[in-house]
Design a protein that fits this description.
Order of helices and strands of chain B: EHHEEEEEHEEH
Number of domains of chain A: 1
Largest interface: A-B, 23 and 23 residues
CATH topology of chain A: Arc Repressor Mutant, subunit A
Distance between the termini of chain B: 14 Å
Helix content of chain A: 55-70%
Number of strands of chain A: 2
Oligomer: heterodimer
CATH architecture of chain B: 2-Layer Sandwich
Structural class of chain A: mainly alpha
Number of helices of chain B: 4
Number of helices of chain A: 5
Shape of chain B: globular
Number of strands of chain B: 8
Radius of gyration of chain B: 15 Å
Helix content of chain B: 25-40%
Largest sheet of chain B: 6 strands, antiparallel
Shape of chain A: elongated
CATH topology of chain B: Alpha-D-Glucose-1,6-Bisphosphate, Chain A, domain 4
Structural class of chain B: alpha+beta
CATH superfamily of chain A: Winged helix-like DNA-binding domain superfamily/Winged helix DNA-binding domain
CATH class of chain A: Mainly Alpha
Strand order of the largest sheet of chain A: 1-2
């Protein structure tokens, strides 16, 4: 279904696709030709990877005149962060905060 | 990430699937009782020829015009950030909210903040903000509750 984590994780589980995201992070709004020039890969191969990224919502394309520009959409990564990262790091952080509070109370 | 300077993007695109109707999504974007729950506490009111965005302290958070008003599909606004004097001095940029209904009671919301080429401070400032706003909007519409504030 839409926004399914599976698609995002699957899209991220490939070095070429992560490379493409990093290139877009450096400079957003690039054409297929620009992205292709950074990879030792056929145009068709790059298109396939971009399609997987697009289906996962990580890349959004928009037309600018005659060009089709690829933009990084950081929202799905943010949602994964909210769903998966925050949850597990929060516990550690709060454990440390609790420890700090306890130790400081002992000092007093 | 920590040592890297994030590029200030002249065009920023944020898109997200939200399980809601176009009408509810439109209402969540254009009425203050909704916006204050996910938009940094801002009370935003959008009417055909005018929008207002009041911060929690009652001062204007942003200013601009309504460039397009097409409920429940599209709202385009010009944007000048007022929360920081350096950003307020930069030229106005543009924010487009596009709502596309999808199969299965979903909407695809795409927020495009562009025309930021001459406004690098604004571009850098809003890039993290949109992420928080948009994920908060999704959470609010899908769960009825605001996203818990997690410190940056």
């Amino acid at each position: 279904m839409h926004g399914d984590d599976d698609r995002v994780f699957k899209a991220l589980a490939d070095p070429t696709r992560r490379f493409l995201l990093d290139r877009l992070f450096e400079r957003d709004g690039r054409t297929l030709t620009e992205l292709e020039s950074e990879l030792e890969m056929s145009r068709f191969g790059v298109m396939k990877h971009l399609r997987v990224l697009e289906e996962a919502g990580l890349v959004v394309t928009r037309r600018s005149g005659r060009e089709k520009l690829h933009h990084l959409n950081p929202v799905p990564i943010r949602l994964i962060h909210d769903r998966w990262i925050d949850k597990y790091t929060e516990r550690h952080v709060s454990a440390l905060t609790d420890l700090k509070t306890r130790l400081e109370q002992e000092d007093a | 990430m920590s040592t890297m300077t994030e590029p200030a993007l002249a065009t920023q695109v944020y898109s997200i699937y939200i399980k809601t109707t176009p009408e509810k999504l439109w209402e969540a974007i254009t009425t203050p009782q909704f916006t204050q729950q996910y938009f940094y506490g801002a009370r935003i009111t959008v009417v055909p020829d005018h929008y207002e965005s009041l911060g929690p302290d009652g001062s204007d958070l942003t200013t601009g015009d309504v460039l397009e008003f097409d409920p429940p599909r599209k709202f385009v606004q010009s944007w000048r950030s007022l929360w920081d004097p350096e950003q307020a001095d930069e030229p106005a940029s543009r924010v487009t909210w596009a709502i596309e209904p999808q199969d299965g009671d979903y909407c695809l919301l795409t927020v495009t903040h562009d025309e930021l080429g001459a406004s690098p401070k604004t571009a850098a400032s809003v890039s993290g903000g949109w992420l928080l706003i948009i994920s908060g909007l999704k959470t609010l519409l899908e769960t009825g509750k605001p996203l818990a504030e997690s410190g940056d």
